[in-house]
Every structure is written in structure tokens, then in C-alpha cells.
Recover the amino acids of this structure.
């Protein structure tokens, strides 16, 4: 549906050329929800604006629904933009127009008759749950309601693509959730292709099928959200994920020296990642049964879900004879679980009380 | 005394209102589009054109830097060409219009600048033409500001029309100078000042009320 080839964007600034995007290739399939995450200044907003040519790339091709956007004339481009809806962080609603008129705005631009506009706007109001706010002005609405108006407005032209530029970044967590749910419903019911720009990993996790991590104007990592979450490769990806999934050791061990060699009274800390249907298998119980003399302490546990796939992360502390610990690791190696050995760490004395 | 001054006052008030209303109408018809031009051709705006922007901007600044009393005298040949005479209420309208156009232009430009750029971006993303952005986004969104700014222009026009009166344009300024000052009639002077105050207050009140009604932010 969307294909970006070799997108580059360079700005002239007083301090010389700024390379906002440095060769981006991206393909987004029809009906997919594709997330693009990056820190501010990484170039993600520029990238999404290249899709509808609000920013003209310095080099590269932008193909939306088979049409090369970079070669269109101004008037062809205006037509093409009508099939690409966009919502914004600050909603960008007309303050002087009512909810109804804001949603009707793109239709008025095309010279649609008042009767046809009404036929179009009313179901949209229903879809976004604002039928009772028709005659209110944006200033009378909450942030979430404003974004619902933004979504309805973006859908008025029956677009094939919806671009979301930090659409939930100005909203509180509950409202964010409801807006994400609405986007999911729209994606499913209208088989709309959705591109989501965000700096929040939570949004990617809740909403997206695929994700690209953008850093310094290039895509650092990409893949299905499940893969990227469970097996992040790039440093920046790990940082994004660590906001949601803490990688810190439990308090009793935090800050203590980690050694790869066994020291007296220490635990061997290991991180276990369970994925998919096996996430609830009794692996740890089996391990303890198989390895006599093994002490196993659960230090941290978290069972989550990404797109309906269970995803468990645990930190356990093992203690016992060397060979018992080795056999435990061997046992885990044969199970359907990812094991990461952290090292031998002593428990802080204060926490042992 | 009052019965004698009253007809003079009402005639003068009528002339002042005539000068202000006609000048304002003509100056707005040119000044508002000028403001739109100044704003939209600026850097980063929808019709960016640095050459036009700077050329128009310089002319606007040049006219605005001429004190009204000097402008009025300097353009007497032009006034005579347009109206057929350089004296009289109608003749006063020419310099009033010329002084107000760049003033309105800058005021409208200032109001348009306050429209968040995100709104223009959203309209562009929906496939709006530049003309649609001007008529459906910029002007409606800036309208409360434009109304406030135009109120200021009207009040400035009341003052300038009084100055125009001093060189034979009629109106309240003329009355105050000829009767109040030159004939030593302080009560006429006072009455004129009171009428001017009431007029300006009324204009400001109407302007504020209208701007507030339009402002949905």
C-alpha cells in the first residue's frame, strides 16, 4: 500500500545542512497498522509527512496505492491527499467551527452538497461516539473528544491510509487507550492502512502489527511487534522497551557486584523469557524436580500479552552445588524458553531481614 | 446655547461618521487582501514569495512612516485628480484611505500570524487549495483578532478625520477648531470632545462585543 524507497531529506539551516532522513526504505502492506517509533528529532515526523508530501523528500520515491507521489503535479497531489487521512498530536481542529463543521470540512473542500455531507458526517459522529456534541466548539471538548473529531474528519473522504502523528501524545493514559481502541476498530472495519508515529512503546505494543525503530534518520530495526519486543537487537530499541519492561535487577540485588564466577552465599541470577503457548508451562517446577538439591527463588515475574500472544519474563535466583546449577541450565536449554545468564550476585544484607 | 450648538454638532458628527465609514470600507476592501498577501507570501507560508513579500512590505512601511498631516498635504494633487477638489469631506477620504490601507494590512497580517500553523498543515493534508486555506482556515480562524484590530483602525480614523477637518474637511475636528478654538467658544470645544469620547467608546464597545462573540477558542 505504501512503499518508501531511499527517502532522504536534507534541510538547510544556518549551521549547515541537516540530514533529517538518510535513506529510508519501508514497505507497508494494505490493512496493516505500522508503527514508527523514535526519539524526538529522530526524523519520524518528517518521515510521515513525506508520505503525503507535506514534506517533499530530497531524494527517493514515495509510492502510495501504486502512485508515485513525488512526480504528481500540485493539483494531482491535492487529489491524492484526499485519500490519505491524517490526525495530529494537537488535533488541529478549526476553533471557529463546530464539531459537525470540522468533520464536514474536507467534504466542503471538494464541493460536496449539504445533503451528502449530512449523510456522511452523521455516521462518522456515531462511529467516534460524539453524536451528542454536534454543535459544540472544540474548546468545549476534552482532549480525547477533540482527537475523536480529528479521526472523524480524517475519515470523511473515505481514505485508504490513515497517518497518525503522535496522535495520543497529548492525552492521558485512559484516553490514549480509548483512542487506540477506536483506531483498531477503524482499521478492522474499514480495512484501512494505518501508519502510527509515536515515541511511546506502549502505543506500539497495544496497537501495531509491525514496528520500525528510527534513529538518526535511518531505520535501526524493524519487524513484527512481537519479535522486536521479545528479541530487541538495537540499543535504542532496548531502551524503548525498557520503559515498559524493566531490565533492572530486583531491589535486593541491585547495585551489587555481578560476577561470572561463583562466590559464597551468592545466587546465580537468570532471566527467563517464555513466549507463546508455552508461557504457562510448568518449566520451573519441572526443573526443581529434575535437579535435586537445587534452590530456586523467584525474584521477578511478569506475564504480558502482545497481540494475544502470552509473553512471560522472569528473574530467578538459583543456588546449590555447582553441578546442580549446571544441570539446571542444561535442563532449561532443552525447554522452550529463552535463558539469559546474568551472573552470580549476592543479596544485600539489609534486604535479607 | 445648547439649541444653537446642537445642529452644528449633529452635522459635524454626521460628516465624521461619513468620512470614517467610507474610508474604512474602501481601505478594508484593499487592506484586508493586502494583509493576506503579506502573511501568505512570507517565508514558510502557503504562497511563499520573498520578492513580493519584501517589495510589498517596504511600500507598506514607507507609507506608514509618513505622519498623517504630511501625507494629507503631500497627496493633494492625487486627491484633486480623484475627487476633483482637495477641500471638503469627500476629499478628506482619499488621504484617510491611503493612510489606513497599510495600517489595516499590518494589523490583518498580525492576526493571521496567530493562526496555528498546524491548522494550515491539516488543511493541506486534506487537499485544500491555497485559496481555500485563506477563505476557510486563515480568515475564519483569525476573525476575532481581525475584528479587534479593525476596531483600532476605526478609532485611529476618527482621530485622523478630525485632523482632515482642520484643512477644510468638515466633521468634529473642524467644528472644534473653528468654533471652539478660533471663536473662543470653550463650550463647543467641550461638547465636541464629549461627542468624540462617546463615539470612540461606542466603536470600541461594538468591536469588543463582536470579537468576543466570534471567538470560540
Amino acid at each position: 500500500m505504501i512503499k518508501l524507497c531511499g527517502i532522504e531529506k536534507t534541510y538547510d539551516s544556518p549551521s549547515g545542512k541537516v540530514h533529517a532522513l538518510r535513506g529510508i526504505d519501508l514497505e507497508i502492506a494494505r490493512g496493516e497498522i505500522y508503527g514508527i517509533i523514535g526519539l524526538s528529532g529522530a526524523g519520524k515526523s518528517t518521515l510521515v509527512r513525506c508520505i503525503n508530501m507535506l514534506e517533499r523528500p530530497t531524494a527517493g520515491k514515495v509510492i502510495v496505492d501504486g502512485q508515485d507521489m513525488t512526480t504528481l503535479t500540485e493539483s494531482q497531489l491535492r487529489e491524492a491527499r484526499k485519500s490519505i487521512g491524517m490526525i495530529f498530536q494537537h488535533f488541529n481542529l478549526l476553533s471557529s467551527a463546530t464539531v459537525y463543521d470540522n468533520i464536514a470540512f474536507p467534504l466542503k473542500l471538494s464541493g460536496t452538497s449539504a445533503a451528502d455531507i449530512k449523510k456522511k458526517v452523521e455516521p462518522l459522529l456515531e462511529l467516534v461516539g460524539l453524536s451528542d456534541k454536534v454543535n459544540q466548539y472544540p474548546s468545549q471538548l476534552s482532549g480525547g473528544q477533540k482527537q475523536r473529531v480529528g479521526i472523524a474528519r480524517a475519515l470523511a473522504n473515505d481514505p485508504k491510509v490513515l497517518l497518525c502523528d503522535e496522535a495520543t501524545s497529548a492525552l492521558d493514559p485512559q484516553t490514549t487507550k480509548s483512542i487506540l481502541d477506536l483506531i483498531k476498530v477503524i482499521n478492522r472495519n474499514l480495512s484501512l492502512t494505518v501508519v502510527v508515529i509515536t515515541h511511546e512503546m506502549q502505543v506500539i505494543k497495544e496497537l501495531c502489527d509491525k514496528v520500525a525503530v528510527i534513529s538518526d534518520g535511518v531505520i535501526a530495526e524493524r519487524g513484527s511487534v512481537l519479535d522486536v519486543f521479545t528479541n530487541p537487537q538495537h540499543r535504542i530499541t532496548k531502551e524503548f522497551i525498557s520503559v515498559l519492561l524493566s531490565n533492572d535487577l530486583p531491589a535486593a540485588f541491585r547495585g551489587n557486584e555481578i560476577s561470572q564466577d561463583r562466590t559464597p552465599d551468592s545466587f546465580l541470577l537468570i532471566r527467563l523469557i517464555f513466549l507463546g503457548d508455552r508461557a504457562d508451562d510448568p518449566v520451573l517446577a519441572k526443573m526443581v524436580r529434575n535437579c535435586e538439591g537445587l534452590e530456586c527463588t523467584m525474584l521477578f515475574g511478569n506475564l504480558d500479552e502482545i497481540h494475544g500472544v502470552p509473553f512471560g519474563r522472569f528473574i530467578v535466583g538459583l543456588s546449590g552445588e555447582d553441578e546442580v546449577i549446571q544441570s539446571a541450565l542444561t535442563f532449561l536449554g532443552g525447554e522452550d524458553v529463552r535463558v539469559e545468564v546474568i551472573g552470580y550476585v549476592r543479596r544485600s544484607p539489609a534486604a535479607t531481614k | 446655547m445648547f439649541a444653537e450648538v446642537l445642529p452644528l454638532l449633529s452635522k459635524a458628527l454626521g460628516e465624521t461618521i461619513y468620512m470614517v465609514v467610507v474610508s474604512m470600507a474602501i481601505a478594508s476592501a484593499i487592506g484586508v487582501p493586502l494583509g493576506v498577501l503579506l502573511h501568505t507570501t512570507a517565508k514558510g507560508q502557503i504562497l511563499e514569495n520573498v520578492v513580493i513579500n519584501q517589495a510589498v512590505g517596504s511600500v507598506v512601511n514607507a507609507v506608514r512612516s509618513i505622519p498623517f498631516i504630511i501625507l494629507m498635504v503631500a497627496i493633494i494633487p492625487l486627491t484633486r485628480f480623484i475627487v476633483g477638489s482637495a477641500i471638503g469631506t469627500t476629499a478628506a477620504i482619499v488621504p484617510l484611505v491611503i493612510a489606513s490601507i497599510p495600517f489595516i494590512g499590518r494589523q490583518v497580517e498580525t492576526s493571521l500570524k496567530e493562526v496555528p500553523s498546524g491548522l494550515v498543515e491539516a488543511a493541506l493534508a486534506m487537499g485544500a487549495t491555497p485559496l481555500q486555506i485563506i477563505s476557510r482556515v486563515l480568515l475564519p480562524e483569525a476573525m476575532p483578532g481581525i475584528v479587534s484590530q479593525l476596531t483600532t483602525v476605526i478609532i485611529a480614523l476618527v482621530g485622523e478625520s478630525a485632523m482632515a477637518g482642520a484643512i477644510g474637511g468638515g466633521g468634529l475636528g473642524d467644528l472644534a477648531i473653528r468654533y471652539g478654538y478660533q471663536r473662543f467658544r470653550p463650550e463647543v470645544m467641550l461638547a465636541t470632545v464629549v461627542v468624540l469620547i462617546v463615539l470612540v467608546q461606542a466603536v470600541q464597545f461594538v468591536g469588543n462585543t463582536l470579537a468576543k462573540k466570534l471567538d470560540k477558542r
